[in-house]
Amino acid sequence: MAMSSGDPINLSGLLDGLAGALSEEESALVRSWLVPESVKAPRGLGAGRERVVQEFGRPVEGDPQGVRRVGVIGGGTAGYLTALALRAKRPWLDVTLVESSTVPIIGVGEATVPLMVTFLHHYLGIDPMELYREVRPTWKLGIRFDWGPDPDGFMAPFDWGSNSIGMLGSLAEQGNINAFTLQSLMMTADRTPVFAPDDEPVSLMKYLAFAYHLDNERFVRFLTGLARSRGVGHLDAKIAEVVPAGPDWIDHLVTTDGRRLEFDFYVDCSGFRSLLLGQALNTPFHSYSDSLFTDRAVTGNVPHGGLLKPYTTARTMDAGWCWNIPTRESDHLGYVYSSAAISDDEAAAELARCFPGVTPPRLVRFRVGRHESAWRGNMMAIGNSYGFVEPLESSGLLMITQGILALVRSMPASWSDPVGREVVNSVLGKKWDEIRWFLSVHYRFNTRLDTPFWREARSLTDISGLRPLLEVYAAGAPLRLRDKLTQLHLGLTAPTFYGLEGVDCVLLGQKVPTRLLRSAEPIERWRARKAAADVLVRQALPQAEALALFDAEPRLHDELIKDRDGWVAKSAPTL
Question: What is the pTM of this model?
Fold first, then answer.
């Protein structure tokens, strides 16, 4: 009979069978290793208990090549989050943020993904009550796409990996995917997983991943004060010149008022200007414009009448799409469009027609793509100075945090140490490319409108990075329910930033043709799960009421952030 090394009965039985061949001392040694009393389950025959101390190296005193002074060039979310992370994880560093007060903060709503919650509260150690009081975030359960042929669009909830109710059942019963998880039903009903039976708050938020909607201007002000309280130095200065020392090294900076700034390590957070990476080091730029045609946005705010939707909306427009990010005061809008298809004035007029009462428009210009490398010599770029894709899947702040995590983990204590630049550059470049291909299928298959822009997008959008995966999708979906070997092959052939679950959601949500897999269960089981989920949705609170409970109840924040069985603690970045 085959024995499992993880089965306590079989393993104990095996050791009992060997008892006659072992001395008492030998038997005790083996049992103490494989079946110790101090743990609830046996370690198994393959158990290894060797560990290392997880720590960052510090520069040795007197080392002339030690990395002690870091200059973060540029503010905004990228600059301040970088400075705070370096102070939190490498507190011996002298971190100085250099920014100009003449450069305004773009006051738009920012949509994030769940990693931002864990990054802020676990990695940076920000008190949630303080964040809620100063920044007043709202909750995002996912994205509602007014996209594709279905008039109701489709939901892309953050619990899409759970498939907790069932995608095949939702397609069979409703003709769409909007009832495949609990969060998708909550989004449809404009509810949150918070309850108040007998006025005693009960929250399921710690079990269902969510993200924040943030007012960017308020968020940056909060980060600014936090950085100064945590020892981040600050210089109000504008950089006039970046002086290199060879093709891959920054020697010093010169400000417009003549000051010379020298650091051991430079972080370029200068935004689209890319002062260090792009301009000074002349790092090649790889455009994504053959997959993503948009290059501008007009933004504004509109009253929401107190209805705080628990999701970001992505609405198809004549020459692109419009985000709707609910903050506590108003909905923040942004029409992302192609300047080759529509003028700035025409875009502003369309936004005003679709959203009566919107505030006067503000224009944002951008380019999509990434530089060849993020890290060169003694400089690394984070945020828009390295790469940017339009905000269709809320990837901006996500990629800022990914870059920060890579920087903090990989920065050497001394330039005499080995440096893993190429690994960081390869990983970050791959992640940006994956986002590019994931966003491309949103455009290639969106049949909501038949305007010149969308006809061109459906015919010309480059989706070649996901072509092998799309062939497998056509043969059978959902991809997440295919056999394990096929899933493995897809991961090796066409890796996707949000996994097969994300591809399923976007393709099936847009009703891209496929052969649906045959369900192995009667539809009555799906109906029973849906009915049970509907009970919870009916009892759930609208977001405004739920937020008021969290504002008044520190216990709810503690449960959400600190409980070890919750998703926030489980997914928190280590080191």
Answer: 0.93
